[in-house]
Amino acid sequence: GGLGQLGVGLAEMLRKQYGAENVILSDIKKPPPHVSNSGPFVYADVLDYRHLRELIVNNRVTWLVHYSALLSAVGEANVALARKINITGLHNVLDLALENCLRLFVPSTIGAFGPSSPRDPAPDLCVQRPRTIYGVSKVHGELMGEYLHHKYGLDFRCLRYPGVISVNTPPGGGTTDYAVQIFHDALSTGHHECYLRADTRLPMMHISDCHRATVEFMQTPECQLSLRTYNIAAMSFTPEEVAQEIRKHLPHLTVTYNPDSVRQTIADSWPVRFDDSNARRDWGWAPVFGLEELVSDMLMSIRENKTNEAFPKS
Ligand SMILES: NC(=O)c1ccc[n+]([C@@H]2O[C@H](COP(=O)([O-])OP(=O)(O)OC[C@H]3O[C@@H](n4cnc5c(N)ncnc54)[C@H](O)[C@@H]3O)[C@@H](O)[C@H]2O)c1
Ligand SMILES: C[C@@H](O)[C@H](N)C(=O)O
Protein backbone atom coordinates (compact mmCIF):
# COMPACT_ATOMS: atom_id res chain seq x y z
CA GLY A 1 0.00 0.00 0.00
CA GLY A 2 2.99 2.30 -0.57
CA LEU A 3 1.39 4.68 -3.09
CA GLY A 4 -1.33 6.03 -0.80
CA GLN A 5 -1.29 9.21 1.26
CA LEU A 6 1.42 7.99 3.62
CA GLY A 7 3.70 5.50 1.84
CA VAL A 8 5.63 7.69 -0.60
CA GLY A 9 6.78 10.19 2.04
CA LEU A 10 7.74 7.45 4.48
CA ALA A 11 9.83 5.73 1.79
CA GLU A 12 11.53 9.05 1.04
CA MET A 13 12.45 9.49 4.71
CA LEU A 14 13.70 5.90 5.03
CA ARG A 15 15.70 6.17 1.79
CA LYS A 16 17.52 9.24 3.10
CA GLN A 17 18.70 7.19 6.07
CA TYR A 18 19.19 3.73 4.55
CA GLY A 19 19.87 4.38 0.85
CA ALA A 20 17.37 4.48 -2.03
CA GLU A 21 18.15 0.91 -3.18
CA ASN A 22 17.43 -0.52 0.27
CA VAL A 23 13.80 0.58 0.50
CA ILE A 24 11.31 -1.05 -1.91
CA LEU A 25 7.94 0.60 -2.44
CA SER A 26 5.04 -1.57 -3.56
CA ASP A 27 1.36 -1.21 -4.44
CA ILE A 28 -1.19 -2.46 -6.96
CA LYS A 29 -1.28 0.93 -8.72
CA LYS A 30 1.11 2.31 -11.33
CA PRO A 31 3.56 4.73 -9.72
CA PRO A 32 3.77 8.31 -11.02
CA PRO A 33 7.08 9.17 -12.78
CA HIS A 34 8.65 10.99 -9.80
CA VAL A 35 8.09 7.87 -7.67
CA SER A 36 9.43 5.42 -10.31
CA ASN A 37 12.54 7.58 -10.62
CA SER A 38 13.24 7.82 -6.90
CA GLY A 39 13.96 4.15 -6.08
CA PRO A 40 12.81 0.53 -6.52
CA PHE A 41 9.10 -0.09 -7.01
CA VAL A 42 7.38 -3.48 -7.41
CA TYR A 43 3.79 -4.56 -7.99
CA ALA A 44 2.52 -6.39 -4.91
CA ASP A 45 -1.05 -7.35 -4.06
CA VAL A 46 -1.39 -7.97 -0.33
CA LEU A 47 -3.90 -10.72 -1.16
CA ASP A 48 -1.37 -12.70 -3.23
CA TYR A 49 0.55 -14.67 -0.61
CA ARG A 50 2.84 -16.61 -2.96
CA HIS A 51 3.95 -13.53 -4.84
CA LEU A 52 4.60 -11.62 -1.61
CA ARG A 53 6.71 -14.54 -0.39
CA GLU A 54 8.70 -14.52 -3.62
CA LEU A 55 9.37 -10.78 -3.28
CA ILE A 56 10.46 -11.13 0.33
CA VAL A 57 12.79 -14.06 -0.37
CA ASN A 58 14.28 -12.71 -3.60
CA ASN A 59 14.93 -9.25 -2.13
CA ARG A 60 16.13 -10.50 1.28
CA VAL A 61 13.58 -8.24 2.98
CA THR A 62 14.10 -7.65 6.73
CA TRP A 63 11.49 -5.01 7.67
CA LEU A 64 7.93 -4.86 6.36
CA VAL A 65 5.73 -1.76 6.63
CA HIS A 66 2.14 -2.76 5.92
CA TYR A 67 0.11 0.23 4.71
CA SER A 68 -2.52 -1.26 2.40
CA ALA A 69 -6.05 -0.76 3.72
CA LEU A 70 -9.44 0.64 2.86
CA LEU A 71 -9.99 3.64 5.15
CA SER A 72 -13.06 4.34 7.29
CA ALA A 73 -15.55 5.96 4.89
CA VAL A 74 -14.60 3.89 1.84
CA GLY A 75 -14.65 0.75 3.99
CA GLU A 76 -18.26 1.36 5.07
CA ALA A 77 -19.20 1.71 1.40
CA ASN A 78 -17.56 -1.63 0.55
CA VAL A 79 -17.49 -3.88 3.60
CA ALA A 80 -16.68 -7.13 1.78
CA LEU A 81 -13.60 -5.64 0.09
CA ALA A 82 -12.50 -3.91 3.30
CA ARG A 83 -12.73 -7.22 5.15
CA LYS A 84 -10.58 -8.87 2.48
CA ILE A 85 -7.87 -6.22 2.22
CA ASN A 86 -7.78 -5.17 5.87
CA ILE A 87 -8.12 -8.61 7.49
CA THR A 88 -7.09 -11.30 4.96
CA GLY A 89 -4.29 -9.01 3.75
CA LEU A 90 -3.08 -8.53 7.31
CA HIS A 91 -3.10 -12.30 7.93
CA ASN A 92 -0.88 -12.79 4.87
CA VAL A 93 1.54 -10.19 6.14
CA LEU A 94 1.63 -11.64 9.67
CA ASP A 95 2.25 -15.18 8.36
CA LEU A 96 5.02 -13.97 6.06
CA ALA A 97 6.64 -11.98 8.85
CA LEU A 98 6.71 -15.03 11.12
CA GLU A 99 7.90 -17.40 8.38
CA ASN A 100 10.72 -15.10 7.27
CA CYS A 101 11.73 -13.54 10.62
CA LEU A 102 10.70 -10.07 9.43
CA ARG A 103 10.19 -7.13 11.71
CA LEU A 104 6.75 -5.68 11.10
CA PHE A 105 5.18 -2.24 11.37
CA VAL A 106 1.38 -1.98 11.00
CA PRO A 107 -0.43 1.32 11.62
CA SER A 108 -3.64 1.54 13.60
CA THR A 109 -5.83 4.61 14.04
CA ILE A 110 -8.12 6.72 16.20
CA GLY A 111 -10.77 4.60 14.40
CA ALA A 112 -9.81 1.60 16.55
CA PHE A 113 -11.95 3.16 19.32
CA GLY A 114 -15.72 3.34 19.48
CA PRO A 115 -18.60 5.04 21.31
CA SER A 116 -17.97 3.11 24.54
CA SER A 117 -14.27 4.07 24.72
CA PRO A 118 -13.16 7.02 26.85
CA ARG A 119 -12.98 9.90 24.36
CA ASP A 120 -11.19 12.76 26.10
CA PRO A 121 -8.56 11.55 26.27
CA ALA A 122 -8.48 7.97 24.93
CA PRO A 123 -5.67 6.09 26.69
CA ASP A 124 -3.60 3.28 25.13
CA LEU A 125 -5.45 0.57 27.02
CA CYS A 126 -9.24 0.80 27.32
CA VAL A 127 -12.50 -0.59 25.93
CA GLN A 128 -12.32 -0.82 22.10
CA ARG A 129 -15.64 -1.54 20.43
CA PRO A 130 -15.45 0.32 17.08
CA ARG A 131 -18.52 0.36 14.85
CA THR A 132 -16.82 0.45 11.43
CA ILE A 133 -15.28 -2.45 9.50
CA TYR A 134 -12.13 -0.31 9.35
CA GLY A 135 -11.97 -0.03 13.15
CA VAL A 136 -12.81 -3.69 13.68
CA SER A 137 -10.01 -4.73 11.31
CA LYS A 138 -7.55 -2.41 13.08
CA VAL A 139 -8.37 -3.80 16.55
CA HIS A 140 -7.98 -7.27 15.07
CA GLY A 141 -4.57 -6.24 13.71
CA GLU A 142 -3.44 -4.85 17.06
CA LEU A 143 -4.52 -8.02 18.88
CA MET A 144 -3.10 -10.49 16.33
CA GLY A 145 0.24 -8.70 16.22
CA GLU A 146 0.53 -8.55 19.99
CA TYR A 147 -0.53 -12.19 20.32
CA LEU A 148 2.17 -13.31 17.85
CA HIS A 149 4.71 -11.14 19.64
CA HIS A 150 3.98 -12.74 23.00
CA LYS A 151 3.67 -16.30 21.65
CA TYR A 152 6.45 -16.40 19.03
CA GLY A 153 8.53 -13.28 19.62
CA LEU A 154 7.41 -11.49 16.41
CA ASP A 155 8.84 -7.95 16.47
CA PHE A 156 5.43 -6.37 15.84
CA ARG A 157 5.09 -2.58 16.20
CA CYS A 158 1.96 -0.52 15.82
CA LEU A 159 1.15 3.18 16.15
CA ARG A 160 -2.37 4.55 16.30
CA TYR A 161 -2.22 7.52 13.94
CA PRO A 162 -4.58 10.51 14.22
CA GLY A 163 -6.05 11.96 10.99
CA VAL A 164 -3.01 12.75 8.87
CA ILE A 165 -2.79 16.05 6.96
CA SER A 166 -0.62 16.32 3.87
CA VAL A 167 -0.29 18.12 0.55
CA ASN A 168 1.34 15.86 -2.02
CA THR A 169 -0.86 12.77 -2.10
CA PRO A 170 -4.63 13.04 -1.63
CA PRO A 171 -6.15 11.07 1.25
CA GLY A 172 -7.74 7.72 0.43
CA GLY A 173 -11.35 8.03 1.65
CA GLY A 174 -11.30 8.63 5.37
CA THR A 175 -13.48 10.56 7.81
CA THR A 176 -10.75 13.14 8.48
CA ASP A 177 -10.22 14.08 4.80
CA TYR A 178 -12.05 17.42 5.13
CA ALA A 179 -9.01 18.69 7.02
CA VAL A 180 -6.96 18.34 3.82
CA GLN A 181 -9.61 19.54 1.35
CA ILE A 182 -10.32 22.75 3.29
CA PHE A 183 -6.81 24.06 2.50
CA HIS A 184 -7.18 23.45 -1.25
CA ASP A 185 -10.64 25.06 -1.25
CA ALA A 186 -9.40 28.04 0.78
CA LEU A 187 -6.77 28.76 -1.88
CA SER A 188 -8.91 28.03 -4.94
CA THR A 189 -12.56 29.08 -4.51
CA GLY A 190 -12.35 30.53 -1.00
CA HIS A 191 -15.28 28.33 0.03
CA HIS A 192 -15.40 24.91 1.70
CA GLU A 193 -18.48 22.77 2.26
CA CYS A 194 -17.74 20.56 5.24
CA TYR A 195 -19.30 17.10 5.63
CA LEU A 196 -18.84 17.25 9.43
CA ARG A 197 -20.50 19.54 11.99
CA ALA A 198 -18.58 22.69 12.91
CA ASP A 199 -17.87 21.42 16.45
CA THR A 200 -16.57 17.91 15.58
CA ARG A 201 -13.25 17.64 17.38
CA LEU A 202 -10.78 14.98 16.23
CA PRO A 203 -7.07 14.25 16.80
CA MET A 204 -4.94 15.31 13.79
CA MET A 205 -1.26 15.33 12.80
CA HIS A 206 0.99 16.86 10.14
CA ILE A 207 2.37 14.18 7.84
CA SER A 208 6.00 14.96 8.62
CA ASP A 209 5.37 14.32 12.35
CA CYS A 210 3.62 11.08 11.39
CA HIS A 211 6.58 9.87 9.31
CA ARG A 212 9.12 10.90 11.93
CA ALA A 213 7.16 9.11 14.67
CA THR A 214 7.06 5.97 12.54
CA VAL A 215 10.79 5.95 11.83
CA GLU A 216 11.76 6.81 15.42
CA PHE A 217 9.46 4.10 16.76
CA MET A 218 10.82 1.49 14.32
CA GLN A 219 14.36 2.37 15.43
CA THR A 220 13.65 2.17 19.17
CA PRO A 221 15.45 -0.76 20.87
CA GLU A 222 12.97 -3.45 21.88
CA CYS A 223 13.96 -3.23 25.55
CA GLN A 224 12.51 0.32 25.72
CA LEU A 225 9.03 -0.72 24.60
CA SER A 226 6.54 -1.41 27.38
CA LEU A 227 3.74 -1.73 24.77
CA ARG A 228 3.51 -2.89 21.17
CA THR A 229 0.69 -0.50 20.22
CA TYR A 230 0.97 3.20 21.12
CA ASN A 231 -1.26 6.24 20.65
CA ILE A 232 0.56 9.23 19.15
CA ALA A 233 -0.89 12.74 19.32
CA ALA A 234 -0.09 16.21 18.06
CA MET A 235 -3.24 18.38 18.14
CA SER A 236 -7.03 18.16 18.18
CA PHE A 237 -9.28 20.63 16.38
CA THR A 238 -12.78 21.17 15.01
CA PRO A 239 -13.62 22.30 11.45
CA GLU A 240 -14.51 25.74 12.83
CA GLU A 241 -11.16 26.04 14.63
CA VAL A 242 -9.08 25.11 11.60
CA ALA A 243 -11.17 27.50 9.46
CA GLN A 244 -10.52 30.30 12.00
CA GLU A 245 -6.78 29.63 11.83
CA ILE A 246 -6.85 29.65 8.00
CA ARG A 247 -8.72 32.99 8.11
CA LYS A 248 -5.66 34.54 9.79
CA HIS A 249 -4.00 34.07 6.35
CA LEU A 250 -7.08 34.17 4.09
CA PRO A 251 -9.72 36.31 5.84
CA HIS A 252 -12.38 35.72 3.18
CA LEU A 253 -12.67 31.94 3.61
CA THR A 254 -16.29 30.87 4.03
CA VAL A 255 -17.39 27.45 5.30
CA THR A 256 -20.85 25.88 5.17
CA TYR A 257 -21.72 22.72 7.08
CA ASN A 258 -23.65 19.89 5.48
CA PRO A 259 -23.02 16.85 7.70
CA ASP A 260 -22.94 13.51 5.93
CA SER A 261 -24.63 10.96 8.18
CA VAL A 262 -22.09 8.14 7.63
CA ARG A 263 -18.99 10.23 8.30
CA GLN A 264 -20.60 12.26 11.09
CA THR A 265 -21.63 9.07 12.92
CA ILE A 266 -18.12 7.69 12.54
CA ALA A 267 -16.50 10.91 13.78
CA ASP A 268 -18.86 11.11 16.76
CA SER A 269 -17.72 7.64 17.87
CA TRP A 270 -13.98 8.47 17.75
CA PRO A 271 -11.81 10.02 20.47
CA VAL A 272 -11.59 13.80 20.57
CA ARG A 273 -8.11 13.62 22.09
CA PHE A 274 -5.40 10.98 22.40
CA ASP A 275 -3.37 10.31 25.54
CA ASP A 276 0.11 9.57 24.16
CA SER A 277 2.02 9.75 27.46
CA ASN A 278 3.37 6.19 27.08
CA ALA A 279 4.93 6.97 23.68
CA ARG A 280 6.48 10.15 25.13
CA ARG A 281 7.91 8.26 28.09
CA ASP A 282 9.11 5.05 26.39
CA TRP A 283 10.66 6.32 23.16
CA GLY A 284 10.67 10.11 23.44
CA TRP A 285 7.80 10.92 21.07
CA ALA A 286 7.17 14.66 20.67
CA PRO A 287 5.34 16.40 17.81
CA VAL A 288 6.73 19.53 16.11
CA PHE A 289 3.56 20.82 14.41
CA GLY A 290 0.66 22.43 16.30
CA LEU A 291 -2.39 23.96 14.58
CA GLU A 292 -0.64 27.27 13.80
CA GLU A 293 2.41 25.62 12.23
CA LEU A 294 0.25 23.12 10.37
CA VAL A 295 -1.88 25.83 8.74
CA SER A 296 1.11 27.98 7.71
CA ASP A 297 2.91 24.98 6.25
CA MET A 298 -0.10 23.62 4.34
CA LEU A 299 -0.88 26.97 2.72
CA MET A 300 2.76 27.55 1.81
CA SER A 301 3.19 24.04 0.34
CA ILE A 302 0.02 24.19 -1.77
CA ARG A 303 1.06 27.60 -3.13
CA GLU A 304 4.54 26.26 -3.92
CA ASN A 305 3.09 23.22 -5.76
CA LYS A 306 0.84 25.51 -7.83
CA THR A 307 3.81 27.70 -8.78
CA ASN A 308 5.85 24.65 -9.77
CA GLU A 309 2.98 23.35 -11.90
CA ALA A 310 2.62 26.71 -13.64
CA PHE A 311 6.38 27.16 -14.19
CA PRO A 312 7.90 23.66 -14.32
CA LYS A 313 11.68 23.46 -14.01
CA SER A 314 13.20 22.23 -17.28
N1 LIG B 1 -4.11 8.73 6.33
C1 LIG B 1 -4.55 8.77 7.58
O1 LIG B 1 -5.08 9.78 8.06
C2 LIG B 1 -4.38 7.55 8.45
C3 LIG B 1 -4.69 7.66 9.81
C4 LIG B 1 -4.60 6.52 10.62
C5 LIG B 1 -4.10 5.34 10.08
N2 LIG B 1 -3.80 5.27 8.77
C6 LIG B 1 -3.33 3.98 8.24
O2 LIG B 1 -2.12 4.14 7.52
C7 LIG B 1 -2.09 3.23 6.42
C8 LIG B 1 -1.84 4.01 5.14
O3 LIG B 1 -2.89 4.92 4.98
P1 LIG B 1 -3.02 5.86 3.70
O4 LIG B 1 -3.67 7.10 4.17
O5 LIG B 1 -1.74 5.91 2.97
O6 LIG B 1 -4.11 5.03 2.85
P2 LIG B 1 -4.53 5.26 1.33
O7 LIG B 1 -5.94 4.83 1.20
O8 LIG B 1 -4.14 6.59 0.86
O9 LIG B 1 -3.59 4.19 0.59
C9 LIG B 1 -3.78 2.81 0.69
C10 LIG B 1 -3.02 2.14 -0.44
O10 LIG B 1 -3.30 0.73 -0.37
C11 LIG B 1 -3.30 0.26 -1.70
N3 LIG B 1 -3.98 -1.02 -1.82
C12 LIG B 1 -5.32 -1.25 -1.88
N4 LIG B 1 -5.55 -2.55 -2.06
C13 LIG B 1 -4.35 -3.17 -2.08
C14 LIG B 1 -3.94 -4.52 -2.23
N5 LIG B 1 -4.83 -5.50 -2.43
N6 LIG B 1 -2.62 -4.80 -2.21
C15 LIG B 1 -1.71 -3.80 -2.04
N7 LIG B 1 -2.04 -2.51 -1.91
C16 LIG B 1 -3.35 -2.19 -1.93
C17 LIG B 1 -3.98 1.36 -2.51
O11 LIG B 1 -3.67 1.25 -3.88
C18 LIG B 1 -3.44 2.61 -1.84
O12 LIG B 1 -2.31 3.11 -2.53
C19 LIG B 1 -3.44 2.49 6.44
O13 LIG B 1 -3.27 1.27 7.08
C20 LIG B 1 -4.32 3.39 7.27
O14 LIG B 1 -5.29 2.67 7.96
C21 LIG B 1 -3.91 6.35 7.92
C1 LIG C 1 -8.24 8.53 10.94
C2 LIG C 1 -7.76 7.67 9.81
O1 LIG C 1 -7.75 6.34 10.15
C3 LIG C 1 -8.28 7.95 8.44
N1 LIG C 1 -7.81 9.24 8.01
C4 LIG C 1 -9.79 7.91 8.34
O2 LIG C 1 -10.40 8.94 8.53
O3 LIG C 1 -10.33 6.88 8.08
Automatic annotation (TrEMBL):
Which biological process terms from the Gene Ontology are attached to this UniProt entry?
L-threonine catabolic process
Provenance organism: Oryzias sinensis (Chinese medaka)
- Which reaction is this enzyme known to catalyze? L-threonine + NAD(+) = (2S)-2-amino-3-oxobutanoate + NADH + H(+)
Q: In which pathway does it act?
A: Amino-acid degradation; L-threonine degradation via oxydo-reductase pathway; glycine from L-threonine: step 1/2
A GO molecular-function descriptor: L-threonine 3-dehydrogenase activity
Q: What is this protein called?
A: L-threonine 3-dehydrogenase, mitochondrial
Query: Which residue ranges does the record assign to the NAD-dependent epimerase/dehydratase domain?
Result: 1-233
Q: What is its EC number?
A: 1.1.1.103
UniProt similarity note: Belongs to the NAD(P)-dependent epimerase/dehydratase family.
Q: Where is the signal peptide?
A: none
User: So which domain of life are we looking at?
Assistant: Eukaryota
Q: What does this protein do?
A: Catalyzes the NAD(+)-dependent oxidation of L-threonine to 2-amino-3-ketobutyrate, mediating L-threonine catabolism.
